[in-house]
Amino acid sequence: MPRRVAPDSYSAAGGDAERQDLHQLSSAICNGEDLGPFVRKAFASGRPESLLQSLRHYARSKESEIEEVCKAHYQDFIRAVDDLRSLLSDVDSLKSALSDSNTALQSAAGPLLSFLDAYLEARAVARNLSAALAAARLCVRVLELLARANDHLASDDLYLALRSIDAVERDFLDAAPHPTLRRMLLRLIPAVRSHAERKIAKEFSDWMVQIRVASRHLGQVAIGRASAARQREEELRIRQRQAEEQSRLSLRDANSSSIYSLEEDDDSDDLTAAIAAARGGGGSGAAVDAILGFDLTPLYRAYHIHQTLGLQDRFKQYYFENRKLQLTSDFQVSSMTPFLESHQTFFAQIAGFFIVEDRILRTGGGLISRSDVDALWETAIAKMVSVLEDQFSRMQTANHLLLIKDYVSLLGVTLRRYGYTVDPLLDVLAKHRDKYHDLLLSDCRRQVSEALAADKFEQMLMKKEYEYSMNVLSFQIQTSDITPAFPYVAPFSSTVPDLCRIVRSFIEDSVSFMSHGGQLDFYPIVKKYLDRLLGEVVDGAILRLVEAGGLGVSQAMQVAANMPVMERACDFFFRHAAQLSGIPLRIAERGRREFPLKKSRDAAEELLLRLLEAKLDDFMILTDTVSWMADDPPPNGNEYANEVIIYLETLVSTAQQILPIPVLRRVLCGVLAQVSEKIVGLFLSDSVKRFNANAVTGIDADLRLFESFADNQSHLFGDTEDLGANELKMPLLEARQLVNLLMSNHPENFLNPVIREKSYNKLDYKKVATISEKFRDSSDRLFSTFGTRGSKQNPKKKSLDALIKRLKDVS
């Protein structure tokens, strides 16, 4: 019996796969899907037979379905065939009718078709001609634009040339009718733009060179206009001060309205003024050419061209960098030229630069921004501050520093009008204020020393009225408003007007430095430095002159006579400083202080008094001839007194022509006080061992001479003669009280406080005691308690003895 073989599991699996593929294939055919993937899969697996077998199997399965459908619809098919056969005859008749119609149509439409062909051919020709004409017109428009661009380039009208090129590129480049024309346009358009860029770059470079020269002259004109405006303001202030003074003095007259006048403001800008000045012939040839050639059109043209080229941002940066480099080169200060000579050009160049930048900022259409201008200004002001700091530190002349300060302040005024901040420049000027005044004081110290050294200290002679006006009226040191007759001998020497001119120049220079520097109320500062000038320089110089000891009596008298005049001049100095500082005079007068030259005035009077005292000492040598134990008193006083009186009368006659009354009064009082002191000193002198009543009577006669002299001079002093006489007699009071005490019958009354305060208040206890002990009677060796024995004691002698005893007890 044959062995049963088990079914192959692989074959079973293969059969299941074939059935699954057949099912998928059937589904795809039923759904109308693409059979390509099945075909590729079959060929990829190397079994196309299985696919064919599946297809045949599917076809057999469908054939059976078709048969079933045909069987189901057999009757319907038969009826359809019968209907078709019945229609066949109708179709044949219709066919013959259509053939006849076609034959008739062909015979009728033949000519029309020939005409249609001719029309279509003509239409094609017309279409080609229209295209050719359109291309020709396009070429004509392109060539017209190119010719126009060429003309604009020839006439240097770059903007219109670029507009033409842009129109060609925008409207015709893509629509070029021929490739050759397109290639030409692609080559020419960049070439024209490049040419325009090079051309405008050259014009901009030329403008940069021209604007540098024009800026310098523009800056000079602008600063000059600021200086003129400042001058007009100062003139207006002077008129206002005059009006204020007239108002204070109630001296307004019919012409007072002429003090105030309306100033027409010049509203034109600096550039317009510069061009007007240049056209009016107010400058050199180079300046005129530069100003008249000043034009921002090339710059704006360059900016506009770059905007047209789409390169405005690049041009803005290029412009800013070039202007910055130009500004940096303007900062260079030549070491070969003194800064005093080049500072105006230096600052005018910078001023013109920023005036131009302000104009460009306002009218340039965004070429430069405010931040860029501020950055340039910060750089510029930092450099100017550095240059000023360096140059000021080197300067040793006040006038040089003032000249530069004035120009810098004008620069500040000019640029402040354009909105630039100039405070750092003003801070530099304020920082060097002390140095400037120290230099100015040094110059004044030298000038004062030279003026004093050149003066012979003689009364100044003025032959003409202008000399009087120049030396007296201009400093308000006159004592009367009446003009004197000429020639006029002034009570002062040439030192006074010289010193006044020096001080006035100092005030004006100080005010000039302090004004326009950003500080409004600078009078206290000017006054401080004026006090230093008067107190340290002038007073110190006169004091050194007086203390040097080289002056005689007449010279010392003239120096003393100069001081009251200088006191009036000092009042003028402070008023002048207040007026120049722009403050009301009443405020300046409210803060008036004591005479600044008080030390030198006192020293001059002391010197004159010492010289006169020395002269008196020479006359007092004649006191050696005084007889202290004379038997009879001298009938007309002692000889020395007569000599002193003669000298004093001569002195007064001379001094009253030179010295002011108060000074003369102080000098005479000092001289008479010296006389009184000398007389008292005679009684105290060791050379006078004793004296008697006759000698006292002689000294009394001498005192009466001096008191008579004082009475004779009383008309020069005081409101009344009695007051003047009493004032001059006061210095003789000590000697008079001493003589009165010695001549008194009751000298012990000196011990009575009431009587002493009333009649002997100038006497000193010790002096009285010493002198009383020397008082001898002619009948006795010693006028004391030890008188003549056996006789009645003299009451006066007894009183004097009591006085001497009491004074010894007090001692």
UniProtKB/TrEMBL annotation:
Provide the Exocyst complex component EXOC6/Sec15 N-terminal domain boundaries: 55-223
Keyword check for Hydrolase: no
Q: Which GO terms describe its biological process?
A: acceptance of pollen; Golgi to plasma membrane transport; intracellular protein transport; pollen germination; pollen tube growth; vesicle tethering involved in exocytosis
The UniProt record lists the keyword Electron transport: no
Location comes to:
Cytoplasm, Cytosol
- Pfam families per record: EXOC6_Sec15_N, Sec15_C
Predominant localisation class: cytoplasm
Q: Which Gene3D superfamilies does this entry report, sorted A to Z?
A: Dsl1p vesicle tethering complex, Tip20p subunit, domain D, Exocyst complex subunit Sec15 C-terminal domain, N-terminal subdomain
Question: What are the record's GO terms for cellular component?
Answer: cytosol; exocyst; membrane
Looking up InterPro entries in the UniProt record yields: EXOC6/Sec15, EXOC6/Sec15_C, EXOC6/Sec15_C_dom1, EXOC6_Sec15_N, EXOC6PINT-1/Sec15/Tip20_C_dom2
The record places domain Exocyst complex subunit EXOC6/Sec15 C-terminal at 424-774
Keywords for the protein's UniProt record, in alphabetical order:
Cytoplasm, Exocytosis, Transport
Q: Would you identify the family this protein belongs to, as annotated? A: Belongs to the SEC15 family.
Record's function text:
Component of the exocyst complex involved in the docking of exocytic vesicles with fusion sites on the plasma membrane during regulated or polarized secretion. Involved in polarized cell growth and organ morphogenesis. During cytokinesis, involved in cell plate initiation, cell plate maturation and formation of new primary cell wall.
**What PANTHER family has UniProt attached to this entry?**
EXOCYST COMPLEX COMPONENT SEC15B, SEC15
Protein name in UniProt: Exocyst complex component
The upper taxonomy is: Eukaryota, Viridiplantae, Streptophyta, Embryophyta, Tracheophyta
